[in-house]
Amino acid sequence: MLKNTFCHIPGVGPKSERRFWEKGILSWEACLGAKEPCLSRSHIRENVTASLERFEARDLSWFIERLAPREHWRLFPDFRENAAYIDIETNGFVGERGYITAISLYDGTGVRSYVRGENLGDFKRDIEAFGLIVTYNGRCFDIPFIETHMGISLAHIPHIDLRFILRDLGFRGGLKGSELALGIDRGGLKGVDGYSAVLLWRDFRRNKDRKALETLLAYNAKDVVNLEPLFVKAYNMKIESTPFAGTHLITAPELPVEPYKADAETVERILSVQARFSAHGAV
To answer: Are strands 159-161 and 132-135 parallel, antiparallel or unpaired?
Structure first.
């Protein structure tokens, strides 16, 4: 889809792009060979030529900077092979009292987990192997939190935040709400959320409860594994409104064997505690 895109060119918006498509100018190559008056402005051809060069150089950052966040879906098929889907859990605090309890990284085949006090520092090294980061709400939360509390910068790795794409499609209710609306199941982790993750970490730290940690990591892993099928569904919904619906749809990925199993009794207990806190306004 990226080579069919023109709205990253200054002065070309979605309406102009659609006019190009209606005139049969469906790709950058077609643009350079066309003699339409709408392409008479030299900067359009210059930007298309630059786009081809940047695409061949695999310069994802160049396109990320020129496309609005809601349009980043166009990049997915061409760059997904080197994507890291990431999500963090925290102790529930911000500022100096806040810290990361766990990070999950999914590379399309398997999940890597990083836990505070065990191997959290390995994330700094491992993330450097990837050319794209995909998150849900990572632009506002996960990435700044990682940079602040781990003392690293991720600015050099292009980042796509699915929240902007899904919001443009009309989905609200956060990651879980979007999953539910698009038919993505959480299995035995239904009802578990970010606050549950805080309680699970407290249980692990206070009581050395490995079942609590295992459940926390299962929840965190689910957050990243679900990002890829969620992105595929969002991408296909976007494609349906273009002339490329018959050729550009992509298939849902085969989900990996999940490395952690949530403990059913632990989930029930944590949700019960959470419900009591909520009833007393303590959440």
So the answer is: parallel
What percentage of the chain exceeds 90 in pLDDT?
A: 85
Which is it for the CA torsion 115, 271, 280, 194, positive or negative?
Answer: positive
Residue-wise DSSP of 83-96: EEEEEEEE-S--GG
Edge-to-edge strand ranges of the sheet holding 111-115: 111-115, 100-106, 83-90, 132-135, 159-161
Beta-bridged to residue 133, according to DSSP, are 84, 159
The DSSP symbol for 256 reads P
Report which of 111, 100, 283 is spatially closest to residue 201, judged by C-alpha positions.
100
Residues 103-118 have pLDDT tens digits of 999 999 999 999 999 9
Residue 283 has a pLDDT of 46
Q: How long, in residues, is the chain? A: 283
Helices 174-181 and 227-239, packing angle to 10 deg: 60
Both tokens of residue 252?
A: 């849902």
Confidence of residue 219 (pLDDT cuts 50, 70, 90): very high
Count of alpha carbons within 13 angstroms of residue 18, beta-carbon side: 6
